[in-house]
Specification:
The chain is 35% helix and 21% strand. It is built from 15 helices and 17 strands. The strands form three sheets. The protein has a nine-stranded mixed β-sheet, sandwiched between helices. Strands 3-2-1-4-5-6 form a six-stranded parallel β-sheet. The protein has a two-stranded antiparallel ribbon with strand order 9-10.
């Protein structure tokens, strides 16, 4: 950061929920770690009439409430507050952009990052006005928050609208899962170590599981969520990106396009789930009333703002295949849902057992053996499950699964990790798009997902009900059980 170009960081929607929950805390941690540089301004943009002093006070109160106990530091805040500014702006009024341009010129920075933490319907007006006002140049970057469409057609429209003003190399489509330490460690694990590569294929891997489970419901997002659901909100982006990083071939380098080219090949190799395959390879559900963390909670249809006859899915489970040489015949099981029994996200690589046991143990039934578990949240860990002899002199060799653990907090003497958004915001400032989604990636993921939606619509089937506090519909267990497998052992979940 010392030698890189200084940027003004301009947040449209700077007084909104995302800015308060994610962006301001991320910027605070970057300031704490001396990664924001000595110049450049952070400009919050919103329609509300507000002075910079009042905005700074609101931002401070927000951070004091949201940061973990002991993390708020007055010296760090004072340094960040000097960079924080507020500008009132109406996205549809070109004259407001002229005032913003005059304000930015006072700061002296030529490069600007425009973070669009607003609905996509505002993207065209914002991009056009940025261009016509002179705020944009070849050094400018734009960060796009999801939802980037709700199907292939709308995603293509958004991409065309943005590309009319920003080149692809200037466009950063953010997926916060890609900023998680464990996800980045997946790349290091695969491509910096020789240990796994010989068995990271259909010869060594029995199957892969990707799970993102939440105990919360839709909370205050029912209006948004009812138009998107679990498939659009989680599968099309977060889970698909994880699948790509697990399955991709070794790129020629860590160059952004080299990495993203390999991810795109995975998406194009995904076997389409359409027609009758939709009913065999997918499960969708919707939570009903139940008990979560010993508290009674209402069902999805009882939530405020939800349509009474809504068919929006709050749970999805899929069985996918990648039709290429490396992964031919290996099933990838994906599941995500709200109001489930535990809150966690993890990837399980289940390796094949040895072809013959010389220890008198039927290893086919030992589901914990030869398993790599990458936990993304709530804690970030990597665990390799192996079979080991139980110590002692009893007759015969008795076996037990044991874990080799990498816990980031214990392994590295570093302060609290700042989180995914901090890493991704820093990469935007560095002008490094490696951990961001390219337009063709996004569109290819939508192309795959749209076929599943078409199958659901053609069948007219409603989502299957499941009780809040459960693991989802019974059909999700049956999806994997009929292949002689089970979802990750509950013992590996911190309940």
């Amino acid at each position: 950061m010392k030698n890189q170009q200084i940027c003004d960081f301009i947040i449209f929607g700077g007084n909104g929920d995302l800015a308060k929950r994610k962006l301001l805390p991320a910027l605070y941690y970057l300031q704490r770690d001396d990664l924001l540089g000595r110049a450049g301004r952070i400009v919050a943009i919103a329609r509300t009439e507000l002075e910079t002093g009042a905005y700074r006070q609101e931002a401070r109160t927000n951070l004091e409430q949201r940061l973990p106990a002991g993390d708020f530091d007055s010296a760090t805040w004072d340094a960040l507050a000097e960079k924080l500014h507020y500008q009132k702006l109406d996205a549809s009024k070109p004259e407001d952009y002229a005032r913003l341009d005059a304000f930015c010129r006072e700061g002296g920075s030529t490069a600007k990052v425009f973070y669009l933490a607003v609905p996509p319907t505002l993207f065209p007006a914002i991009c056009e006005n940025l261009a016509s006002s002179g705020l944009m140049n070849d050094e400018s970057r734009v960060v796009l928050e999801k939802p980037l469409g709700n199907d292939l057609e709308s995603a293509q429209l958004i991409n065309r609208q943005v590309r009319a003003f920003f080149k692809e190399r200037q466009t950063f489509r953010i997926d916060h899962y890609l900023g998680k330490e464990t996800v980045q460690n997946l790349l290091a694990l695969r491509f910096a170590n020789r240990l796994f590569e010989p068995i990271w294929n259909s010869g060594g891997v029995d199957h892969v599981q990707i799970t993102a489970a939440e105990t919360i419901g839709v909370e205050g997002r029912s209006g948004y969520y009812d138009n998107f659901g679990a498939m659009r909100d989680m599968v099309q982006n977060h889970l698909m990106q994880l699948l790509c990083l697990i399955a991709m071939e070794v790129p020629g380098s860590m160059d952004a396009d080299a990495v993203r080219d390999e991810k795109l090949k995975v998406l194009r190799s995904l076997r389409r789930i359409e027609g009758e395959a939709v009913s065999h390879h997918t499960v969708r559900g919707q939570y009903e009333a139940g008990t979560v963390d010993e508290e009674s909670v209402p069902g999805y249809l009882e939530g405020h703002g939800t349509r009474a006859e809504s068919r929006t899915e709050t749970f999805v489970a899929l069985k996918a295949f990648i039709d290429n040489w490396r992964w031919s015949g290996v099933p990838f099981y994906l599941r995500t849902g709200k109001r489930l029994r535990a809150n966690f996200a993890e990837v399980i690589i289940q390796f094949r057992n040895v072809p013959h046991s010389i220890f008198g143990t039927d290893l086919r039934h030992n589901r914990a053996a030869n398993r790599l578990v990458l936990r993304l949240q709530p804690e970030e860990t990597i665990k390799l499950m192996l079979l080991s002899k139980i110590p002692g002199v009893a007759e015969g060799i008795r076996m037990k699964p044991v874990a080799l653990n990498l816990n980031f907090k214990e392994a590295f003497d570093i302060p609290r990790t700042p989180g995914a958004y901090a890493r991704l915001l820093l990469d935007v400032l560095r002008n490094d798009p490696t951990l961001f989604v390219r337009g063709d990636e996004s569109e290819e993921a939508w192309r795959w997902v749209d076929r599943i939606f078409a199958g659901w619509n053609d069948s007219g089937q409603r989502p299957l009900p499941y009780a809040a506090g459960s693991w989802g519909p019974d059909a999700a267990d049956e999806l994997i059980r009929r292949d002689g497998r089970t979802w990750g052992p509950p013992a590996e979940v911190s309940l």
